[in-house]
Write the structure tokens for this entry.
Amino acid sequence: MGAVRTQVGIVGAGPAGLLLSQLLHNAGIDSVVLERHSRAYVEGRIRAGVLEQSTVDLLTDAGVGERLHREGLVHGGIEIALDGRRHRIDMKALTGGSCVTVYGQTQIQKDLFERRLADNAKIVFEAAPVSLHDVESDRPSLRYLRDGAEHRVDCDFIAGCDGFHGICRASIPADRLELFERVYPFAWLGILADTRPVSDELIYTSSARGFALFSMRSTRVSRLYIQCTPDEDLNEWPDDRIWTELQRRLGAEASAGMETGPSTDKSITPMRSFVAEPMRWGNLFLAGDAAHIVPPTGAKGLNLAVADVRVLAEAFDAFYRAGRRDGLDAYSATCLNRVWKAQRFSWWMTSLLHRFPDRSAFDGRVQRAELDYVLGSAAGQQALAENYTGLPFAG
Ligand code: APR
Ligand code: PHB
């Protein structure tokens, strides 16, 4: 069995794993990344694309912000459409200057790969299966099969960045983890299309027919979602039906002049809130989707993954530079503080804007009153804007 030695063994080459390896590299710390899929597969996945300013800043400091600054769209507001009427939330004014940047996660993934591979990073693709060993000792290791041969990575620490369905969280004994979960009774059907977005900013739409989101990847590419049932059959949703539904939910007036066209991608996203506590077991540290999932309504998934990785990289740096363990010991609590605030916001945005099939008439009226309150109150809008653009880091 071939063995290599590194300081941090990273499982998963999604945004969390790759950014961690980049930050560690910048701090002079060696890592090996094991990824079960091919580079093309990982780069081809279409995911959300709204970045908080702190995410943009971290990617910039890490040396992967060049294209993001060139191509990303800076948005100072979002719109909420209710029963055919559009209302703008001026996030920039409400927060004293905070904006978000629209830039697809697919592009971040490409930028990270390019940068890591230019630095001769050790990334093993198609490593499957990966297994974790001696995690509670100070000599943990990862084993994996590639091309039928078994390999071993000896390390000081393991970073579990392998997403919701990964092996790292699953390797933790059940009695060492507490899981919190809510599954929503709907999903999002999403398409990409080479059409001009209906508005310069995102439109979150609440209607009697259900939620819809009008987002974008550029000024020429739209990203659109409609609320659907979790078991929806994509074959029953030809493009025409999706565009008609989008127009109905936004309303005839608000969607007047909307450019339609063939979709270039079509998929269904399930909606779930999930947290595993703590985000550490022995010398294994979970980061990103491996530890938590948010429903996409608040656009927080990638931002939370980046926030985890920032805390983890700083903790490793303090350990290797000064022999300090306090950052590692505080890692889980530090991240969970931010994670739960983002969970609350994502749950709130989801509850506020979707049609719940089993909601009582009373609950429906309360939902409507809350929407009216938010849209009519500076304080309500400010709370939304503060959370959407990203809470301060220490908080
Ligand atoms: N062994 C090796 N690699 C694995 C394994 C495994 N057993 N299981 C999963 N992986 C890989 C996946 O193929 C994927 O490339 O781990 C990576 C995890 O990446 P993501 O799912 O993108 O998770 P993360 O890096 O935490 O990024 C979070 O992704 O889902 C979105 O909204 C979420 O934007 C957020 C971001
Ligand atoms: C997206 O553009 O994919 C997107 C934007 C905002 C969200 C979710 C997804 O809240």
